[in-house]
Every structure is written in C-alpha cells, then in structure tokens.
Amino acid sequence: MHYKPEDIPILTPDYGNGCMRSVKAGNMELGATWVKSAVDTTPYYKGLPDDACPCEHYGYVISGSFRIHYLDGSEEHVKAGELYYIPKGHHFIYDEACHHLEINPHEDLQRLMQHFNAQLSQQGDTTPQEPKP
Fold it and tell me: Can you give 7-49 as a three-state secondary structure string?
C-alpha cells in the first residue's frame, strides 16, 4: 500500500499552526506532521498519565527540527535528515517550523490524538483549516 500525503486523513485539524495526517497500516499508523512555527506541546498532554505523551514514535525529520523533553529532565534535539525513536513519557517542543514523517502504534496514537483534539478545541478556535504541506 502507498499513500499521497493529501490522501491521508487529517488527525489533528489545522487551527493555525499545522496539523498531523495519519492512516492505519496494520497495527501501526503512517503519518506526517507539519508545524508552521514555534510551539511547545507540553500543555496539551495535561490530563494524560504523568501529563506526558503515552505513545512511542518512530520517524524521520524532513525539514526543521524539534526537541524532546523527557520526564527525567533530559532533552534531545532532532534535526532535518535524522531518524528517531522516542519512547513514552515525553513532550514535543518545536522551536521552528518542522515537517516530519512518523510511524506510531495505532491504538496509542488514536487515544493521544483524541486527547490532543479535545485540548486544541478548548483554545476557542473550532474551525479547522486544510493544511498546506
């Protein structure tokens, strides 16, 4: 199976700063994330166990970069051209625009995105925009 990015369903609507598209493939999700400018996702994990991401992520950064802040206080900086594995218990922090591909466990990602979408909708903007990759 193969997919064009524009044919992959939107998982997190674009409320002005980017979105995630993802499609189920076996027991995993194949997806892409676009972030248009700096954003610290830490507040969106509030209410999850340890107020942190409960999902493992595997991926590749196409452009830009992001930081991963772990619960133990350590941090990693993942840059364009790098592959990554991120274990559970973290926050994504984007200091700049970024585009990355991800492979995630399906059930964990779906639970996470339901929580994220609820948090995003509480920001007051409930009019999703179609992303521009």
Answer: HCCEEECECCCEEEEEEEECCEEEEEEEECCCEECHHHHCCCH
* Structure-token pair, residue 9: 């369903």
Residues 6+ apart with CB under 8 A from 3: 23, 30
**CA 35/CA 4 separation, integer angstroms:** 19
User: Which range, 34-43, 58-67, 116-125, has the best average confidence (pLDDT)?
Assistant: 58-67
pLDDT in tens, 40-86: 888 888 889 999 999 999 999 999 999 999 999 999 999 999 999 99
4-42: b or e for each residue (b if 16 or more CB lie within 10 Å)? eeeebeebbbbbeebbbbbbeeeebbbbbbbbbeebebe
How far is residue 117's CA from residue 124's CA, in Å, rounded to a whole number? 12
Overall residue count recorded for the chain in this entry: 133
Which DSSP letter does residue 132 get?
Answer: -
How many CA atoms within 13 Å lie on the side-chain side of 33?
24
pTM (predicted TM-score): 0.83
